[in-house]
Specification:
- The structure is a single chain.
- The protein is mainly alpha-helical and 481 residues long.
- The chain has a domain at 404-481.
- It is built from 30 helices and no strands.
Length: 481
C-alpha cells in the first residue's frame, strides 16, 4: 500500500471513529437528559422537558423507564406547560399501562384550557389511546368547547373521539348537535343519532323520529337512541320496533328495555307478546323489561302464567322473579304448580329472587315435587330467603321423607351463620331423623361458627356420627368448599 492510500485509510478511520464517538456521546447525553426528566428535581425536570419535548424518539426513550419514572416524565411536561409539552404528553398517551395513561390525561386536563388546539388535533390521531385521552381532557372544558367539538364531529377522522367528548359533557350539547341529524351525510346522521342516545335528552326525540324511516342502518341507530332516551313521547316508535320482526334484533331488544321503563299498559302488553318472539334476544329483553316495569306488569304476567304456551309461562315466571314486590308471589304460586316442569323450575327460582317471606310455604311444598330440578331450585331459593325459612326447614328434617329432608338440609347448610342456632337444636333433638339430617346440614355449612360447634360436640357423638364431623372438619381445614 502506498503512502497516499494509507493516508486515505487513516482519514476514513478518523472520520468513522469520530462519528461513532459522537453518537455514543450524544446517546449518553440524551440518557442523562432523560434521567433529569424523570428525576424528583422540578428545575431539572423542566429543563430536560424543554430539550426532549420535540425529540423524535421521545416515546421510546421514556418507555425504557419503569412506570413511576414515566409518570414523573408526564409531571415534567405538565410543569413545562407549552404547546410542545402538550404534544409530548399526547405522545406519552400511547403508553400500554393504564395508570400512566390516566396520569397523562390528568396532565392534559391541566393544560388544555391554554393549549386547546393540539388536543383538538389529537382527536384525529392514529392511536386510540391518544384519541381517548384527548376526548377526556377536552370534555373537562364543558360548554365553551362544544362548537369546536361539533365541528370535529363533521370530520370522519375525528368523529368518534369528538362524539366521546360531547357525550361526556352531557345534555348541554343537545341544541348544538341536533342540526346535524338532518345532514345529507348518512354516516354523520348515524353518528349524531348514536350521540343523542348517549346524551339522553328528551328534546332530541322529535328530530330522531323524523329519521326513523331512513335507511335500515340509520333506523337501527335511531331506534337505539330513542330506547336510550326512553321518553313517553317515543312510545309509539318503540312499540312499532318491538312488534316488527323485520327490524334489527338488537334494536328491538333495546326498544323493549325502554318500554319497560315507560311501563304503560300498551308497553306492557307489547312486552308480554315479546315473550313469544322468534328472536331469543328480544325474548330475553322482554323478560328484563317486564321485571323493570314492576307492579305495572303484574296483572299481565298473572294472565301470562295461565296461558297456553309453556315457554311464555316460564319466561313470565322469570320476569316476576326480577321484582321485589310482594304482589309477585301470588302469580308465582300458580306457576310453581304448572304442569310443565320447566315452568315449575323457573317459578321455584323466581320465588327466592323476590326476597319475600310469603314465598316460603310454596317453596317448602315444592321440595317434594316429582321433578328433582324443581326441588333443587326450591331449596336454593329457601337458602336465599334465609331466616324466615329456617324453622320451617328444620321441621322438614324429621318429616320422614328422605328427599325432602336432604333438600332441607342443603338449604340450611347454604344459609351460613343464619342457620347455626337452629342446627344446634336439631343435632340435640330426640328425633333420630332430625338429629342425623341436622348433623349433615351442619357438616355442609362453611361458616366458622359451624366448625367451632362441631369441634365442641366431637366428644359427645356416636362413632357412626363422628365420621361425618371429622370429615367436615378436615374439609374445612384444607380450605375445600
Amino acid at each position: 500500500m502506498n503512502r497516499a492510500a494509507a493516508l486515505r485509510w487513516a482519514i476514513w478511520i478518523v472520520i468513522i471513529g469520530g462519528i461513532i464517538g459522537w453518537t455514543i456521546w450524544r446517546n449518553v447525553q440524551t440518557q442523562q437528559t432523560v434521567d433529569d426528566l424523570v428525576s424528583r428535581n422540578p428545575e431539572r425536570q423542566v429543563a430536560a422537558a424543554k430539550l426532549l419535548a420535540t425529540h423524535d424518539s421521545l416515546y421510546d426513550l421514556v418507555q425504557q423507564r419503569p412506570l413511576p419514572a414515566r409518570m414523573r416524565a408526564a409531571e415534567a411536561f405538565e410543569r413545562l406547560g407549552t404547546e410542545e409539552a402538550t404534544k409530548a404528553l399526547l405522545t406519552l398517551q400511547k403508553d400500554p399501562e393504564i395508570r400512566m395513561r390516566e396520569r397523562v390525561t390528568l396532565a392534559l386536563t391541566t393544560l388544555v384550557p391554554q393549549q386547546t388546539q393540539p388536543v383538538l388535533d389529537a382527536l384525529k390521531d392514529a392511536d386510540s389511546n391518544v384519541r381517548a385521552g384527548a376526548a377526556k381532557a377536552l370534555a373537562t372544558l364543558g360548554e365553551p368547547i362544544v362548537p369546536k367539538l361539533v365541528d370535529a364531529l363533521k370530520d370522519s377522522g375525528s368523529r368518534a373521539a369528538a362524539s366521546d367528548a360531547l357525550s361526556r359533557i352531557g345534555k348541554v350539547c343537545t341544541t348544538q348537535v341536533l342540526p346535524l341529524i338532518d345532514d345529507k351525510d348518512e354516516a354523520l346522521r348515524i353518528a349524531v343519532a348514536e350521540l343523542l342516545g348517549k346524551l339522553g335528552d328528551p328534546r332530541a326525540v322529535p328530530a330522531l323520529l323524523r329519521h326513523q324511516d331512513d335507511s335500515s342502518a340509520v333506523r337501527r341507530v335511531v331506534i337505539g337512541a330513542l330506547a336510550a332516551i326512553a321518553h313517553p313521547s317515543a312510545e309509539e316508535a318503540l312499540l312499532r320496533a318491538v312488534n316488527n320482526p323485520e327490524d334489527d334484533g338488537d334494536a328491538r331488544a333495546q326498544a323493549a328495555v325502554a318500554l319497560g321503563k315507560i311501563a304503560t299498559p300498551r308497553a306492557v302488553a307489547a312486552l308480554v307478546r315479546a315473550l313469544s318472539d322468534e328472536d331469543l334476544v328480544v325474548r330475553s329483553a322482554g323478560v328484563g323489561a317486564l321485571a323493570r316495569a314492576g307492579r305495572a306488569a303484574i296483572p299481565a304476567l298473572t294472565q301470562a302464567v295461565r296461558g297456553s304456551d309453556p315457554e311464555v309461562r316460564r319466561l313470565a315466571a322469570e320476569a316476576l322473579g326480577g321484582m321485589t314486590d310482594p304482589a309477585a308471589v301470588a302469580p308465582l304460586a300458580i306457576a310453581i304448580k304448572d304442569s310443565e316442569y320447566r315452568v315449575r323450575r323457573s317459578a321455584a327460582a323466581a320465588l327466592g329472587q323476590t326476597g319475600q317471606p310469603s314465598a316460603v310455604p310454596y317453596l317448602l311444598e315444592a321440595l317434594s315435587d316429582a321433578d328433582g330440578g324443581v326441588g333443587e331450585a326450591a331449596a336454593a331459593s329457601l337458602a336465599i330467603l334465609g331466616a324466615p325459612a329456617v324453622q320451617p326447614l328444620l321441621a322438614k328434617l324429621g318429616a320422614g321423607n328422605p328427599t325432602v329432608a336432604y333438600l332441607a338440609a342443603r338449604a340450611l347448610s347454604a344459609m351460613g351463620d343464619a342457620s347455626i342456632s337452629a342446627l344446634q337444636s336439631a343435632v340435640n333433638s330426640s328425633n333420630p331423623n332430625t338429629r342425623r339430617w341436622g348433623l349433615l346440614a351442619l357438616a355442609g355449612n362453611n361458616s366458622p361458627k359451624a366448625a367451632e360447634l362441631m369441634r365442641q360436640m366431637q366428644g359427645t357423638l356416636s362413632e357412626s356420627e363422628r365420621w361425618i364431623v371429622d370429615e367436615a372438619l378436615m374439609r374445612l381445614g384444607s380450605g375445600e368448599s
